[in-house]
């Protein structure tokens, strides 16, 4: 189960990185979707997550909040 969760979190990070480097950054709003509700909940509310991927989740949340 852990590799699946890691894959979901990394997919969110990769998608976010691509979006922020694209021309769409200033033209559109990013909607984060995942097959795993927990992954979306964690990056949306990182203070509620204390698991193994804590630093990765916090980094994604930081970038999301910075780009608002």
Could you tell me the number of beta strands?
Answer: 0
- Portion in beta strands: under 5%
| Spans of at least 5 consecutive residues with low confidence | none
Compute the gyration radius: what is it? 12 Å
What count of structural domains? 1
What structural category characterises the helix and strand content?
mainly alpha
What spatial form do the alpha-carbon principal axes imply? globular
N- and C-termini, Cα separation = 32 Å
The major β-sheet equals:
none
Helix content: 55-70%
> Mean pLDDT across all residues, rounded?
86
Helix segment tally: 3
Order of helices and strands: HHH
Protein name: RNase H type-1 domain-containing protein
Organism: Hibiscus sabdariffa
Could you list some keywords that capture this structure?
globular; 68 residues; RNase H type-1 domain-containing protein; 0% strand; 60% helix; mainly alpha
